[in-house]
Automatic annotation (TrEMBL):
Species this protein is from: Streptomyces noursei (Streptomyces albulus)
PANTHER family assigned to the protein according to its UniProt record, in alphabetical order: HTH-TYPE TRANSCRIPTIONAL REGULATOR RUTR, HTH-TYPE TRANSCRIPTIONAL REPRESSOR KSTR2
Pfam families: TetR_C_24, TetR_N
Alphabetical keyword list: DNA-binding, Repressor, Transcription, Transcription regulation
Identification of the protein by name: TetR family transcriptional regulator
Length: 194
């Protein structure tokens, strides 16, 4: 039961951090949202820093397990992009609040707290996975030769991860359906061809 309660508290903390931001959130606000006294929260966690650390670590560990499987699958560049986007939307479905925290707070946390150095490493690892796939696609003639690789990466990254701000698990469209629509727009465009 304590592990289950711990998970519930982390989910509550993630929602509060995502809504208010890490710096603006107090332990008291998390405790209030969890229906407990602030002091009781310290039975489970030593600080709000520990809470956000666990939230982000769990999200990134799961994300990289999925990404690593995609990258090891030997897919072509287009299929790799499709699989990375789909995996990203699945992670938004599973960890929406953690994705929002990562998007808003990762750079700040990595710059100000030594324990969050892994966030800068994750940012570099993301860039390497996506940029490498885009570069391979251009080299293989799958993607346009005039493609600005860095701009394409930023566009893909930002338009996928911003979905954490509007996506709600259990909504009309699940993560795979959203990924298909997104990929159709990104890879094939939205205008009809003559």
């Amino acid at each position: 039961m304590p592990e289950e309660r711990r998970g519930e508290l982390l989910a509550t903390a993630a929602e509060v951090f995502a809504a208010q931001g890490y710096n603006a959130t107090t332990v008291r606000q998390i405790a209030d949202a969890a229906g407990m006294l602030a002091g009781s929260l310290y039975y489970h966690f030593d600080s709000k820093e520990s809470m956000v650390d666990e939230i982000l670590t769990a999200f990134l560990d799961e994300l990289w397990a999925g990404y690593d499987a995609v990258l090891a699958a030997g897919l072509g560049p287009r299929e790799t992009i499709e699989a990375l986007v789909t995996e990203s939307f699945r992670e938004i479905d599973r960890h929406r609040a953690a994705v929002a925290i990562y998007q808003k707070e990762a750079r700040h946390l990595a710059d100000r707290h030594p324990r969050f150095g892994y966030l800068a490493d994750a940012r570099r690892r993301f860039a390497g996975a996506w940029l490498g796939t885009l570069e391979r696609g251009v080299a293989d003639g799958i993607f346009r030769a005039d493609l600005d690789i860095r701009l394409a990466y930023r566009f893909l990254r930002d338009t996928v991860w911003v979905a954490a701000s509007w996506y709600r698990p259990g909504a009309r469209h699940g993560p795979e359906a959203i990924a298909r629509q997104y990929l159709s727009m990104v890879l094939d465009g939205i205008a009809l061809r003559d």
